[in-house]
Design goal:
- By secondary structure, the protein is of the alpha+beta class.
- The chain has two domains: 29-107 and 138-213 and 389-467, 3-Layer(bba) Sandwich (FAD/NAD(P)-binding domain), CATH 3.50.50; 217-384, no CATH class.
- It has twelve helices and 21 strands.
- It has a seven-stranded mixed β-sheet with strand order 6-5-16-17-18-13-19, with helices on both faces.
- α2 packs across α10.
- The chain is globular, with a radius of gyration of 25 Å.
- It starts with 28 loop residues before the first strand and ends in a 6-residue tail after the last helix.
Length: 505
Amino acid sequence: MHLPKNDSEPWTGYTMPLSVPDPSPRQRKVLIVGAGIAGVASALALAKELGPHEPNFQVILYERHDILSTSGGAINLTPVAQRHLDRLGVLQELDRQGPDGGADVDAIELFSSRSGRSLGSIDFTDGHGNGVNGYKGRRVMRIVLSLAMLAVLERQPNIKIVYGKKVKGVSELNDQTILHFEDQTSAAGDLVLGCDGVHSALRTHYVEPGRPSEYTGLAFIQTTIDTPPPPPPASNRTSLSRPSSSTSASGSTHNSTKSSRTTRSVSTNSLTSSDTLSSAGQTQTPPTMHTPPFATSGLALSRHGDLLGSYCDRNHATLFLAAIVQIKETLLPGYRLDGHHISDPRHRVAIHTALQKEIHSRFAGSGIPWIRDVANLKTNWMLYPVYQVRPGGRWWKGRVILLGDAAHAMPPRDESAAYALDDSIMFCRTLAHNRDEPLSTIFTKYEALRRGPVEEAFSAAGRMWETHRDMGFLEGRWKEWTMPYVLWKNRAARNAAWRFDAYES
């Protein structure tokens, strides 16, 4: 309506907003399986998108672990991921963590492990230091991101989280879905979101039992260390011998070097110092390391796998290291810390030693001093196999829908975290905008939005990950020679992905 016109009043011509219908008294109960990035983001997006329309909604997250998992190392947040987290209220909470809130990343610099030659970069700025739509990249420890997300979650009165709940089955009863847990308890809800990752229990027990996860043949061997100081002057150091040939535990032959330096101990942020490798009876010297050949984050390419290095705090006091390598599936059990072995110190040390030898055999022959330092680190290396869920399968059944890796796990890319956030936000917006429609209609509309882009991203990720496999001499040189062209060719697509806005789709 319009107020009466009166030239003497400041509100002349002002149009009053139309009245908004009262929010629905409906009491929708949403169950979310998994409290990782996709699960927590979905809960926050529900509060933001559905809450204004259905203030009596209730969300319960069920996490299989008894406590928040600290595994996973550091995660790369691209500009689009940071923008999504900002809108969910997480970025501000992450900044409250101080230096531990992550390191700003202008670019991931690529270079040859063999020669040290620069091969280009994956840029998160416009070349003038400006972020994409105001956001750069950020490398942060996964546990720090999880804590920030949970801190925001705890401020939502309609959301709660329950730990130690492993799904063993699903049933339907009276227009509700029943989750059955291994502790013999159950929970009923009007809608269930499966955010339980690549090995999703909801997918394998209910939505599509015939679609298991599969090993890609590649794995991360990674660790997090306190950034060592630079080495003393060259005159005080013992030089490395030239590379010789050795065979790695993965069955491949790589270059390696032998070092006459004293065995060193490097503490990590993910494991206690009591687990750090050392030789009995030796005097341990403080670890040192040459200056990395990158400002904040870099990827060294070789024909025996690639090595990622990145600071993950603003003070550059913590360094995340991850080798992306080809490992035979038959060797995985011998490299994993799980089951009863995790409490056996001898077993832990044996695995750390085997993985250190794997790193050494692949990278000790590098032409870059920093990489040779990494190859000789005596630290707590951990193995994380990379699994995927092939595209083309079902994403939903009944009142259950899969989001994130549970639906379409793919090898990690620059913007992997963003895909989980995209799923969460876009589904919750679809639900809110079509809240009076049947769930089958909502699921179908969401799938129509997401399936095409996701399957295209899966194909691109597969092509990229083929470059991390072991290669022959000529193939390795070709990988180096063509990388600048590949980066240039894909630049427009990367920039478009980082400008994507799930709130406008």
